[in-house]
Protein 1
Amino acid sequence: MAWVYLVAAGILEIVWAFTMKQSNGFTRLMPTAITIVTMIGSFGLLSVAMRTLPLGTAYTIWTGIGAVGAFVVGIMVLGEAVSPMRVLAAVLIVSGLVMMKLATS
C-alpha cells in the first residue's frame, strides 16, 4: 500500500508544480489555492509512504515522478521545447526510478 501512496503523492506533486506555474508567482487565487492544497496532500501521502519505505527510496521516487511528470506536462500542456537531450534526461530519470524500485525489498 505504501507504493500506492507514494505514486499518488508523486501525481499530486505534478499537479502542484503545474498549478504553481499557473499561479503566476502566487498572484492568481485559484491556482495558488490548488497549489497549496495539493502540496499538503502530496507531503501527507509521502509521509505515510515513508512509514514503511526507506527515506532514500521514497524521496527519490517521489521527486522523480514529479520531475518527469512536470516535464511531460510542460511539453504537452504548456508547449515547452522537446529536444533529444531533454528526452534522454527524462529517460535516465525513469531508469533510475526503476532501478531504485527494484533495489528496494
Protein 2
Amino acid sequence: MAKEEAPHVERLPADLLAHVLSLLPSFHDLAMAGGVSQRWHQAVGRSLSSRRRLSFAGQRTGDDFTARLVRAAVNLRDLDISRSCWGCQITDQGLLKLSSATCVPNLTSISLWGLARITDKGVVHLISRARSLQHLNIGGTFITDESLYAVANSCANLKSIIVWSCRHVTEAGLVAVVRRCPELECINVGGMRVSPESFAGLVSISPSLRIRSIPQILNADVLQVS
C-alpha cells in the first residue's frame, strides 16, 4: 500500500509556512493555527517573532491573549491596542502583564487610544519600561498627570503624543512632558479642560512645538509608524 503523502501545506519550508500564517487577518485564527500540529505551533511562534508591528484594532481581545502575543513578538516596534468596535477588554492587568515582554524597551510606537478600563497604574508600569518610545497615543482614556510624569521621566526620545480628550490631565502634566522630552515635535491636546493660555505657555517652552486639537484616533502627521 502506497504511503499517503502529506498535504502540500505541510511540505512548505518552515520560513514560508511562517510567512503564510503571518497573513492571517485575525489573531484568533493565528492562535487556532498554532494548535494544528507541533510544526504549525513553531511556525506561529516564528511568525510572531518576526513581526515589527502588531495591531489589535478590530479584534476582540483581552488581557491574557494580548500579553501572550506581545511576549512572543520579540522584535516588535509598533504596538496598537486601541479600543475597537468589538469592545477591547484590556485592563491594567493586561498592561502589567505585557510590560514584562522582551520587546517593550524597544517599542517606538504605542497606541492605547480609548481604553476606558486602564488607569495610571497600568500605564505608568508600561511606559516606565518603554524607553525607546517616540510616538504615544493615549487619547480618550482616564489617565491623569501621573501618567504624563512617567512619560516625562522615561521617554526622552518622544516625538509626538496624543492626549486628546484626556479630561483629567492638567497643565502641570503637559508642561512636564514638554520640558523633559527635548525631541517632542507635536502634541494633540483637543477636548481637554486646559485653557488656551496654557497651550501658549507650552509653545513658550518649546517654540518649534506643533499643537493640534483634532479628534482623529490616528493621524498620520501626529502618530507615525516606524
Protein 3
Amino acid sequence: MSGKAVIFDVGRVLFHWDLRHLFGQLIADPAELEWFVTHVISPEWHFQHDAGRDLDSMLAERIAEFPGHAPLIHAYRARFNETIPGPVEGMHDLVHDLHQVGVPLYIISNFGAEFWDAFRPTQPIFDLFDDLLISGREKLIKPDPAIYRLALDRFGLTPEQALFIDDVPANIAGAQSVGIAGHVFRDADGARDWLRGFGLP
C-alpha cells in the first residue's frame, strides 16, 4: 500500500446536495422557487450554520425578515435531509474499494452540526471512515487553512500522506496551502484516475 490516506468532502462529492430538492416539493412555481433559494434560504445564508452559527438564531432572524415564508423556513430545519437526495454516482463504490484494501479514510466537510447529527445516523457509509471533521462542530470552515491543519493533527497525518477530494476549487487551494495534495472533484471516474496516480485502486 502507498502509505496514503484519502480525505473526502461530503456534499456534492459523496452525496448530492441542493436546496431545490426540498423546496421544489414545496414551491410549485419555478420562478418563485429560484427567488426563494436565492434570497431566503440561499446557499450563502445556509453556510452560516456550516461555519458554526446557531440555527435557532438564524431561523428567528430569517422569519423576522420574511414572515410570510415562515412555514418554508421551518421546513428547512425539519426536512433538511430532503436536500440530500442520494449518493453521487460511483463514489460509494470507490469508498468501499479503498476501505477493502485498508486505505485510511477521513472526512472534512462544511456541514452544520445540527444537520450533521440528523444526517449521519441515516448513512452507514460513514462507518467506513476512521474519523470525520465537521465544520459546524469546530466553528472552522473550508477553505480556511486552519481547518486542514486541525484535520492533520486530529487524524495523525503528515501533509505528504493526505490526499483530499472536494468539488470546490477554493477548498482544494486551502488544502494545498498546508501541503495536502488535492483533486477538484467532477465525477467518480476522475477521482479514481487521480488516486491511481498515487498507487491506490
Protein 4
Amino acid sequence: MPDLDDRHWLQQAIDLSRSCPPTTTAFSVGAIIVSSDREVLSTGYSRETDPHDHAEEIALTKIPANDPRLPHATFYTSLEPCSKRASRPQTCTQLILAAAIPRVVLAWREPTIFVDCEGVELLEAAGVAVVELPDLAQEVKEINANLLD
C-alpha cells in the first residue's frame, strides 16, 4: 500500500529518467533509494556512466552493500526492475534482493518490447513489498515514447 511520500519519491525517480542519454535499445529509467527516515541514500539513471547501465544498479553501486539503512529502505524506480539481462551478470531484481531492500515502488511494469520481465513477481516471491502507482505510468511511457512506436 502506498504511503504519503511514495508519490513524491517516485516522481523524483521519473524526473531522473529524463537525464538518460537517448537510445533505441533500452528504456530510460530513474531510481532513488530512500531510507526509513526519508533521507535519499542514492540515485541513478539508465546509461548514467556506461551505455549498458541500468538505473537500479547505478543507485546500488553508489552506496556500500552493507549499509545498515538498506534493510529498512524503499527503492523507487520508474520502471519494473529487470529480471533478464544480457549485458551484466546480475539482473536489477537480483541486485535489489541481494541488498535486502524490503520495499520497491514503481510506476510502470516493463512491456515485452525487449524481454518478458518478471521483476515484480520475483520480488514478491522473495517477500519484498511491491507497490505500483500506475497513474504515474503515462509519464514514464511518454519519456520512452521512442520505443513504443
